[in-house]
């Protein structure tokens, strides 16, 4: 028998695997936080399943989200990425990945790690919401508004409040699994 899950992930086995193993699990390491940040920025205006289906292509195309390499991408590399049919070919988003890598490194220099910076907003602990239905999850919150505003001041692009709230959900800063979801057992 299938376990009870949040309703949004029933469309595919890939979606279920992501929901079961990653979504809402706290992430404290900078490389994974950067990967999710870049994937979320590419997702803006698209469905998350579109990004999940292309995730391995993104990893290969973007040097497995090595932000130090991405920060050095040339115009030639950006043009090469624009020809890659395995990813979302949006020049503004590709250029944002480069500028976001540079901004990410600056945040690391200032705070010791991006993790220390981002998790300070929740005192290092997940915010656990108690939702009866996935549709009750907000798209933004005052906290995602605040983080978005600060990231933009620091030079990040495509980091509106909706993108940031999705990032917070993906990296476990917020646990928006519905109350009867099997992932909440023991939490």
TrEMBL record:
InterPro entries associated with the record: Adenine_glyco, DNA-3mA_glycosylase, DNA_glycosylase, Tag
Pfam families referenced in this protein's UniProt entry, alphabetically: Adenine_glyco
Superkingdom: Bacteria
Xref: Gene3D superfamilies: Hypothetical protein, domain 2
Name of the featured protein: DNA-3-methyladenine glycosylase I
Native species: Flavobacterium humidisoli
């Amino acid at each position: 028998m299938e376990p009870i899950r949040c309703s949004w992930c029933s469309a595919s086995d890939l979606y279920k695997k992501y929901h079961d193993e990653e979504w809402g699990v706290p992430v404290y390491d900078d490389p994974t936080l950067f990967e999710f940040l870049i994937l979320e920025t590419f997702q803006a205006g698209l469905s998350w399943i579109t990004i999940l289906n292309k995730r391995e292509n993104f990893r290969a195309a973007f040097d497995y989200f090595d932000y130090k390499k991405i920060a050095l991408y040339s115009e030639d590399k950006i043009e090469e990425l624009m020809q890659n049919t395995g990813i979302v070919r949006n020049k503004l988003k590709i250029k944002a990945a480069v500028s976001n890598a540079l901004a990410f490194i600056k945040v690391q220099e200032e705070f010791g790690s991006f993790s220390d910076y981002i998790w300070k907003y929740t005192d290092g602990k997940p915010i656990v919401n108690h939702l009866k239905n996935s549709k009750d999850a907000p798209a933004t919150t005052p906290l995602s508004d605040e983080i978005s505003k600060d990231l933009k001041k620091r030079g990040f692009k495509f980091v509106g409040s909706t993108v940031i709230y999705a990032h917070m959900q993906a990296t476990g800063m917020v646990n928006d699994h519905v109350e009867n979801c099997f992932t909440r057992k023991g939490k």
